[in-house]
Design a protein that fits this description.
It is a single chain. By secondary structure, the protein is of the alpha/beta class. The protein has one domain (29-52, 66-275): TIM Barrel. The protein is built from eleven helices and ten strands. The protein has helices spanning 30-42, 65-75, 93-100, 115-130, 143-146, 151-164, 179-182, 184-189, 206-224, 250-267, 283-286, and strands at 45-49, 79-84, 104-109, 136-141, 171-176, 192-196, 229-234, 241-243, 246-248, 271-273. The strands form two sheets. An eight-stranded parallel β-barrel has the order 1-2-3-4-5-6-7-10, surrounded by six helices. Helix 4 packs parallel to helix 6. The longest helix is centred in the C-terminal third of the chain and has 19 residues, at 206-224. It is globular, with a radius of gyration of 18 Å. It starts with 29 loop residues before the first helix and ends in an 18-residue tail after the last helix.
Length: 304
């Protein structure tokens, strides 16, 4: 049935990566860059964020098992791990189907303003973990960044999950890398530091983006004080304008993906790349670029 293909022909560890800027892309024509991007993808990655929603769908829509299975079939040859963001409305199928395909799971409970939804999400995460579908549990995603709840409320949910699921499942909380420096109580409660690192969203020029991501990782590691750090999201949009010195383009999206995967392979950095498929609903919350973060387009075709 196929699956993530460890160590076949092409090795990312053989690509020269400068400490500052990454791969020297001046050696590659546009066609050669696309070929390197495809080789990098086919060599496999540690983790991938699962994009659930098709055109016309958005969070709150009820998603079928068939839809999850179809998309999992597409991505299964390329990744060891998958990350999900919610445990309700069909998202609960993601870890179940991933396990069928031999993919490990970082499973998230989505927390926000609605207490009833929060309780359903946490109950869903606990249930999935008890049934063996969860390898790492993530309690909340960027809740503090969005100011959706207090630290005390978040700590309550983290500790509730830690007390309810098997002890061998690490429990963490996902947020922007710097939040773990700002909120040591949250960092202390986590078994693992789950850090989102986006040079693009900080207006960083592509040329310096790898160096900046390394700095982000280092800050999260310093805050973690010896705890394992996983980059739970990083990526670069393929179109939709720009932010500061960061330009959304196909060329930059290819370069950023290659650089991140080579760094991950060479230094054993665990990265969940954002994202698998383009999702049109994100145009609203994130401006035009929101819809163009996928390795595959919204029609489930590889972009390059």
């Amino acid at each position: 049935m196929g699956g993530y293909r460890e160590g076949h022909q092409f090795s990312l560890k053989g690509i020269d990566l400068s400490e500052q800027t990454g791969v020297d892309f001046t050696k590659y024509s546009g066609k050669e860059l696309a070929e390197l991007w495809r080789k990098t993808l086919k060599s496999g990655m540690h983790g991938l964020c699962f994009s659930l929603y098709e055109d016309g769908q958005q969070p709150g829509a009820i998603i079928t098992e068939e839809q999850v299975r179809r998309r999992m079939e597409i991505i299964k040859p390329y990744t060891k791990w998958i990350r999900s963001f919610s445990c309700t409305d069909g998202n609960e199928f993601i870890p179940k189907i991933a396990k069928e395909f031999g993919i490990k799971t970082l499973v998230g409970a989505w927390l926000g303003h609605d207490q009833e939804v929060n309780e359903r999400e946490v109950a869903g995460l606990i249930q999935l973990a008890k049934k063996g579908y969860v390898d790492i549990a993530a309690v909340g995603n960027e809740v503090l960044y969005r100011n959706d709840m207090s630290k005390e409320e978040l700590l309550g949910f983290i500790n509730q999950v830690k007390g309810a699921i098997p002890d061998d499942i690490p429990v963490g909380y996902v947020d922007a890398y710097y939040e773990f420096s700002v909120h040591p109580e949250i960092t202390e409660a986590c078994d693992v530091i789950l850090a989102n690192c986006y040079p693009y969203w900080e207006g960083c020029h592509m040329e310096y983006s790898l160096l900046h991501m390394k700095q982000m990782f280092a800050q999260a590691a310093a805050a973690g004080n010896g705890k394992k750090v996983i980059i739970t999201e990083t990526g670069w949009p393929s179109e939709g304008g720009g932010l500061g010195s960061a330009l959304a383009s196909e060329e930059n999206a290819m370069k950023y993906f290659i650089n991140s995967q080579v760094w991950s392979a060479k230094n054993d950095i665990e990265i969940f790349y954002f994202s698998s498929f383009d999702e049109s609903w994100k145009v609203g919350p994130e401006g035009d670029v929101g819809a163009y973060w996928g390795l595959w387009d919204k029609n489930e075709k590889l972009k390059f």
